[in-house]
Amino acid sequence: MGANAAIEEMFRDLVGADSVLIATHLRPDGDALGSTFGLRSYLRSLGKKADVLLTDGMPHRYLRLYTGARSSVTREQADEYALVAILDCANIQRLNIPHTLDIDYLRGRRTINIDHHAYNNIDAPKNFVCVERSSASEIVANMLLDAKAEMPRECATALLAGMMTDTGCFRFSNTKGDTLRTAGALLDRGADLERIANEVFFSKTFNCAAFEADLFNTRLKLACNGKFAYAYIDDELLKKHSFALAEDEGIIDNLRALEGVVIASLIFRNAAGEFKLSLRSKDSAYPVGPLARKFGGGGHEMAAGATLRAADFDEVEKLICREVTELLGE
Ligand SMILES: [Mn+2]
Prior knowledge:
Helix content: 40-55%
Number of domains: 2
Strand content: 15-25%
CATH class of the largest domain: Alpha Beta
Distance between the termini: 46 Å
Bound molecules: manganese (II) ion
Low-confidence stretches: none
Mean pLDDT: 96
Number of strands: 11
Largest sheet: 6 strands, mixed
CATH topology of the largest domain: inorganic pyrophosphatase (n-terminal core)
CATH architecture of the largest domain: Alpha-Beta Complex
Number of helices: 13
Shape: globular
């Protein structure tokens, strides 16, 4: 089946279903939220029951843009949805679903998987993975635009917000001519750019600003002749600012933006005591995707992440500095 036929079939599945449960990845980012809430808005405009499932809450900056997610669902409640749609999630370990559900349950259901990450391992009954698209939101937008679907303004706004966050407002290398054409089509359909700009990009809490300043002043380290910038977000710093890790979207981009820096990394420890590594590159000659995969993680070539088991941060630091030194040829 050609790519177009596959996504057209998914569109027919979606509009043919009375009710749709929409899931995404843990620690949802702007694309996870834009694609899921955008699709929800469209399906609800058709009079369908459609719900977004988010088990680990909503980052502060999206609270006014997106409301009414389901925080959990029992197996019986999940059974009542005619279709399950998974958006923007590449990895079964990162599925944002309650413990009552699992991937085997989802694979046994009518489930569709729409994503833009290479190495997607969801393996649902139906899958559409298009790495040429900047974001899952762009895929959903094109699906609706190609079908000449009547798009509510709220839907266009969510999808544009998702595209803007995953492309860093069209600065990252995943921005193609088609990305901008799709964004233009969303604007033509009433996407509220001012609202997105103010809610998502011109909205930093004082708390977040103070946390970020402290992080840069006291935790930022440079290696590889200033080409590698990294910072460890330890519990002490989090506690000092009462900062929630869910609010970190965008901080790593400010690390990468530093003059001379090619690769940036933010490291924190999750509840299980593992070290979570976010990686960004600003030079396609030095992609971080392969590095993340070497550590058992994944993502995109210029933006990726991994989880490491280590005794302490010193061990993580040695490992990552060695790998980045090798990657940069320093
Ligand atoms: Mn995405």
